[in-house]
Amino acid sequence: MTSSVANGGTAVTKLWTGDYYNEGNGDKDSIFDKLKEECGVFGVFGHPDAANLSYYGLHALQHRGEESCGICTSDNGTFHYHRGMGLVKEVFDRDKLESLVGSQAIGHVRYSTAGASRLANAQPLVFKYRGGDLAVCTNGNLVNEPGIRKELEDSGSIFQTTSDTEVIAHLIARSPKDLVEAVKDAFARLIGGFAFLIQTQGRLIAACDPHGLRPLVMGRLGDGYIFASESCALETIGAVYERDVQPGELLILDKDGLHEDRFAPLERRAVCAMEYIYFARPDSDIYGVNLHTSRKRMGQTLAQESFVDADIVTGVPDSSISAAIGYAEQTGIPYELGLIKNKYTGRTFIQPSQELREKGVKMKLSAVRKVVEGKRVVMIDDSIVRGTTSLRIVNMLREAGALEVHVRITSPPFMNPCYYGIDTPNPADLIASSKTVEEIRQAINADSLYFLSEKGLIDSVGGHDDEYNRGLCLACFNNDYPTPVEFEDAKLTSCSCD
Amino acid sequence: MTSSVANGGTAVTKLWTGDYYNEGNGDKDSIFDKLKEECGVFGVFGHPDAANLSYYGLHALQHRGEESCGICTSDNGTFHYHRGMGLVKEVFDRDKLESLVGSQAIGHVRYSTAGASRLANAQPLVFKYRGGDLAVCTNGNLVNEPGIRKELEDSGSIFQTTSDTEVIAHLIARSPKDLVEAVKDAFARLIGGFAFLIQTQGRLIAACDPHGLRPLVMGRLGDGYIFASESCALETIGAVYERDVQPGELLILDKDGLHEDRFAPLERRAVCAMEYIYFARPDSDIYGVNLHTSRKRMGQTLAQESFVDADIVTGVPDSSISAAIGYAEQTGIPYELGLIKNKYTGRTFIQPSQELREKGVKMKLSAVRKVVEGKRVVMIDDSIVRGTTSLRIVNMLREAGALEVHVRITSPPFMNPCYYGIDTPNPADLIASSKTVEEIRQAINADSLYFLSEKGLIDSVGGHDDEYNRGLCLACFNNDYPTPVEFEDAKLTSCSCD
Amino acid sequence: MTSSVANGGTAVTKLWTGDYYNEGNGDKDSIFDKLKEECGVFGVFGHPDAANLSYYGLHALQHRGEESCGICTSDNGTFHYHRGMGLVKEVFDRDKLESLVGSQAIGHVRYSTAGASRLANAQPLVFKYRGGDLAVCTNGNLVNEPGIRKELEDSGSIFQTTSDTEVIAHLIARSPKDLVEAVKDAFARLIGGFAFLIQTQGRLIAACDPHGLRPLVMGRLGDGYIFASESCALETIGAVYERDVQPGELLILDKDGLHEDRFAPLERRAVCAMEYIYFARPDSDIYGVNLHTSRKRMGQTLAQESFVDADIVTGVPDSSISAAIGYAEQTGIPYELGLIKNKYTGRTFIQPSQELREKGVKMKLSAVRKVVEGKRVVMIDDSIVRGTTSLRIVNMLREAGALEVHVRITSPPFMNPCYYGIDTPNPADLIASSKTVEEIRQAINADSLYFLSEKGLIDSVGGHDDEYNRGLCLACFNNDYPTPVEFEDAKLTSCSCD
Amino acid sequence: MTSSVANGGTAVTKLWTGDYYNEGNGDKDSIFDKLKEECGVFGVFGHPDAANLSYYGLHALQHRGEESCGICTSDNGTFHYHRGMGLVKEVFDRDKLESLVGSQAIGHVRYSTAGASRLANAQPLVFKYRGGDLAVCTNGNLVNEPGIRKELEDSGSIFQTTSDTEVIAHLIARSPKDLVEAVKDAFARLIGGFAFLIQTQGRLIAACDPHGLRPLVMGRLGDGYIFASESCALETIGAVYERDVQPGELLILDKDGLHEDRFAPLERRAVCAMEYIYFARPDSDIYGVNLHTSRKRMGQTLAQESFVDADIVTGVPDSSISAAIGYAEQTGIPYELGLIKNKYTGRTFIQPSQELREKGVKMKLSAVRKVVEGKRVVMIDDSIVRGTTSLRIVNMLREAGALEVHVRITSPPFMNPCYYGIDTPNPADLIASSKTVEEIRQAINADSLYFLSEKGLIDSVGGHDDEYNRGLCLACFNNDYPTPVEFEDAKLTSCSCD
Hints:
The structure is a homotetramer of 498-residue chains.
Chain A: E1 20-21, E2 39-45, H1 50-60, E3 68-75, E4 78-85, H2 88-91, H3 94-99, E5 104-110, E6 117-118, E7 125-129, E8 132-142, H4 145-154, H5 164-174, H6 179-188, E9 192-200, E10 203-208, E11 217-221, E12 224-228, H7 232-237, E13 240-244, E14 249-254, E15 257-262, E16 271-272, H8 273-279, E17 285-286, E18 289-290, H9 291-305, E19 312-315, H10 321-331, E20 339-341, H11 354-358, E21 365-367, H12 369-372, E22 376-381, H13 388-399, E23 404-409, H14 437-443, E24 448-451, H15 454-461, E25 472-473, H16 475-478
Parallel strand pairs in A: 16-25, 19-22, 22-23, 23-24
Antiparallel strand pairs in A: 1-6, 2-5, 2-12, 3-4, 3-5, 7-8, 8-9, 9-10, 10-14, 11-12, 11-13, 14-15, 17-18, 20-21
Helix pairs in contact in A: 4-5, 5-6, 9-10, 9-15
């Protein structure tokens, strides 16, 4: 990749800002080396408040991407769109929303990469092609995108973004068939995990990859249809959940209503396990399973698999609170607020200098001395990626007076990169890829360490008994990828949704 | 009050903003008709990173005031200050912080009133007087401020703000005595609840009202001294808690170190009970009592006083989570995530129209259908003010399928206005001032309702046995005000810190 | 055109702005219904300060486009770019400029259409294609763009902007030949008036349309080469003017220096006469003719053609000052400041309401009562488009006490639309297309009216005697277009540079 | 002065800005070492559009102060105000203006000092005192302010700004008399040059210092009264000029209409000559003299006093254009555009580095090569302060090919500091205070240099024959100050309006 965006020294807020934003310092998760969520999509068909509903729907999906967002509506053949860098509440104001007229809309939230990012990559992307106007947005990652892109370039295509989405648009535009057939042909060429929303004048198309790696649900609001990456967005706007979009399915909405179609047969369902473990909101359901409930079960199962005698249980906020409560309930050890997160921390927060950090200035997380002092602590977290965060948190608890720190993780060791939309670090940096559990324990300075078993995880999620792994993709734990991933140019999710 | 600030129609973000910000629509707590916290103060003496530490300290106190903030440093006799509208992370950037040189600093966060607000009221206020430069900031409210203000005006004083703080500065400047004696004389005239920080060239003075109504702690960081409204700010910057500033105490720091003095004898300690119930951060300690722990005990006591058979316990986020867990542990009923708050909601968020709200668009809080459906729910909250919020939340749970909703409140009925810094609505609007518990139950559509007893509250907080009410002010529950409040011009906390 | 950008009600300034800006009310020239300038381009090759020089160069060209701007540099094969809505000084800050490293750059300023505008159209456009990175910017308009676009769409191309520039990029990318040959093939297909700058890794290409309709000059600064739409930008950065880029020429710069080439033979030169009359800065030279000097000559010629006895001569600021001084010098009637323009008026200025305007509140222009009261005034202007502005100004002078107002225009009647980059209103709205001079005089309430003759204009500009019309395009006056303009889809400059 | 505002490194634009703006680099006039204008005031009484009229009026006075501005209205006893850093068009938007209800208003524009500046000094200042609300704004400088301030501090006053205006408010508030008498007593103590507007509930008071050093005019709009520093602001809003406020006069407007009063007898009128020479807008009239006309006469008189044979006359834009045209008309030498100013330069413009400047990058002014090449040039300017600017401009003309440069100045040598509101550099830096005209000529590299004689200046301004110096203050040229200026603490206009 030879083209990069300008990279200024510090984050500067501009009156008339341009087409990129440069996160001055790596605020995001410089302590929390968490896996990065990818993106969220939202769509409306046949409702007069399409833009407003998209605003509230995307707001509910904000945790899936904080970097940029956008909405494109269609009104009697005219597209209206607005995209920008920042949170939904920052990018849109009343005037902008009012200008997005029409009863159809698709919208997107995009996650922030560690380095520079740019508005050009904000979605939905909007194109003109032979068939008229086309807006596309996606959540996920195409493994074989580099090969398709090269093939397109070789036949004279030009690209203005680094996004998979633009590749799809080219494939659709180059097909001589009508839209639905062109989309089906295009999708049939894609390998990866993705949820797509495509809008043309008078039509909205929703699709999931053949393994359902990335979630997508459909709901109803009055006479209108709603699509969202997570069901919490349906609840937020008062829509009624109807069903999950099935792997390989293509749902088409037009003036005649809903048409159910497929671009691929349903093979093995393999929903990303990390959606259950960490990404999705606890009030969402995926394939009928509530996330809070499933995480609480993970905590309970973990307690059954690895009880340890202790004085308190605490969870790393926010993602591990449900599991920690489950662990506490199962063991009878009281759940306490041993760790607290400052809810005001965000993009523009000035990180403490290395010097101040060494002097004890905390960033967004701190231990609660009165709660942990003199206690044996069970600390629940959802995963260990590089191990650096775990070490910091364990040490934070010890400095606050914890006598023992027992770390319990609600997933198996994370060992393999993701090709389907989760931004994983260089595989060599995954601590579990090179270290044993005992070595990890030492590295994070814990008194004991236990990872939830694969079976424990599968059982905690629950769902259909008859499916392979109950319909989960566990490749990051067990290297069992649901698609081929070995291509000359295979694309890891280095920057998801691109 | 005849002078008011301009009041525009909608919130507008400006490149060159001026001296007021007008919250376009009452976003803040339009659903949560919570009591408003007042302000937070932070001070540093004798540390080279004074401004940076203040930034992180104020950030930890952000929950005490989101409207405006400011820092004033002193460097070899030169004051540097910056104040602005917004959160700490919005008002300060690296350049601003770097320009605030010096080893002394005082800082402030101020809460947002429902209506207009203005930069002129942002603190610290900075004055020049005969003695040189003077910076003052405060948390609390003076009951007899109107009388003192009138007396000052009558003798020719002019006022540029509506703040108590300016009144204090006038009193100090008009005294012919030296600074410390002038401050003592000034404070001796004040009736109310307050914590003050005063900075002059080479001196920092901290003081609490004679009943300790508003909290203030002192800590040490290296050779430096730190003051903060709550101990969580000490922890955040790595400082060690030393002690609470005592009621009526005056602590003076200068080149010779710490001088302990008094402007009033220690009479009855009467710390605001709402700090324990709702305001202070759960990781703070006030007079040695941890807030999370005390809230969890409130939940446990509540369970003992009013057990109800149910399927799940849920807390209204964020303030009632600790208590809900306590209730669950005590009863054995599982704690579940029945209500969830969108963490991205904030000042610039566009509220749904009445029409959309009626169609089901949720604002910042929503019920988790999968969790509450078909369940008998115990819902824990910290207080009922007008009752409108409770009604909405109960209905939200019912619409999500709850079979029964049993409301349990971790405080006695809130019946009397506060004169000491908590912004209470018109007393007639306090639902408990005119309705019985049964009438309130009906008004909020609950299956049952119980308020924690006064004794239960006192015992849950704990602390010194020998103190009257264990050192708490419970006036809002029992009308037992620790100071006289009956003056011709007595000032309610209509706009706290003013 | 079915795709349009969202169109909000009022201009709103955003922290995190998105990809369009919507000029809330038609501030720009709502009184001055002037013709709109198109765009300006600037390029640097072989100078270490490429981005900084582009900043100052574009700033000097700001009058050619105030809506958006951008710079793209190339540094050892890596492109860096930034584009934004607003003036050069608003879009770039020190950090942004510093991040644009490299010794090659192309930049662009774009003019504001009356209605909405969007960042997506800001230039340079940056693409990836088979050959690597490609950045393109242009000033002008392609008459046959719709046909080429349709042909491209029919063969599967997708478009993200409405810009001619994207069409060119597609043509280049689709050619199997090497870059220079591909560019030559692409340009050979274009009909219209344009100046292009194209940047690839290690190469900069500059080109002018075969009639030289839009100006482009080359200069030298040290060892580097500079390109600019107007020579004033060379002067601003201290570069030495070398020569105008000739019609049909292709200048290629690479590591071996300058290569002179052609994509079309030099036929008839036909430089846009409006550049001389109105658009270009008075300190620029086009084909060796200084603009101030040529405008002063227009005023002198006008005086010779249509002397009128009067007390004072005044020019409509800013564009007609030079001509007015010429008229004054020729006639001996004193030049006076009869009209003044408020230099602070700009994009964010709030226009007075209709009611206030009727009460006499002036916008950006006002008459100077003391100067014009009781005087017979000769008012010099450069053109009459719709006539509405002329009427307002004449009335303004009369209200300030002018006894007579004699209007003298430094160009012939403007009767025909432009296909080459000047945004002209609907031809039916051109007052001269349907009214005689006498009718126009009445419409604008003047005592007398005279338009400079075509010959007078040609002679005033001067330049080579042997060229047809001395190398000018006068089509807007005489319908004599230098290129074919009759196509099924011929594109008027409805939105120049698109 | 021990209290200073924070001083960041670079200009940073903030969403939520605070109470100071720090001009990152000394953009303003780093080349033009011009004298700085002070401030402008504007007032409305008895007109329903008071805020809107103030907006347009202040916009017309923007040249008198670009740093900050503000408007305070009064509506049935309620004050509404907004102040901010920046231009009028930047500080106010539609919402802000609409919120400023009422039929009375006073407003202010303030000039920018070279260094930091702060919102706290933005005017009008608004106070509460015994008598109710009080808003004050001023243009000018009080010589004896330090003494009065000290006296006030000694009796217990506190100050929040460094402004003269706050001193006045204290004096008024401390007087036991009624408002008008209090104002008269207060003003009687002031020595200096000033124009004041004071607003209370139901009253507007306008006043000029006893010598009329700073201009102030009154006009009528319908039934309403308008006050403005310059008459151009009356014209802009369609008001009719009525009269200048006389030296020592106090005009009071209340529900009974206009009351004419005096706080001092009319002694010698001494209007600041620099208002005529340089500061005021050319379309303004002061005491009946139009500024353009008077400047043109200065040019004509200069031509009579110091004819020089040359090829062209050029003026330094913008202030010397009128005079240059006068010189040209008088001599018959053609006026040409030899120098041009970039109209887009402004506050946020990034100044070229020293290195780039040495390489020839121009800032806002450049010479027009084609116009001056090979010519003998007469260059007209209004004054020489330090001489550095003149040297740069002369050299610029020479580098552009001028054969000779003859500098003609429309004022006598500027030798003495101003105590009345013009920000003059350290007297030692005034080139004319230590050098002869011949030495100055050498220092600025001119072929010849001539300063307009004092008599020539006086005659060019014109006005009443019978007044001493025709009512002008020429102290900066001849040391003849109209007031005492020798006090222990006398305040030079180091930062005017403070």
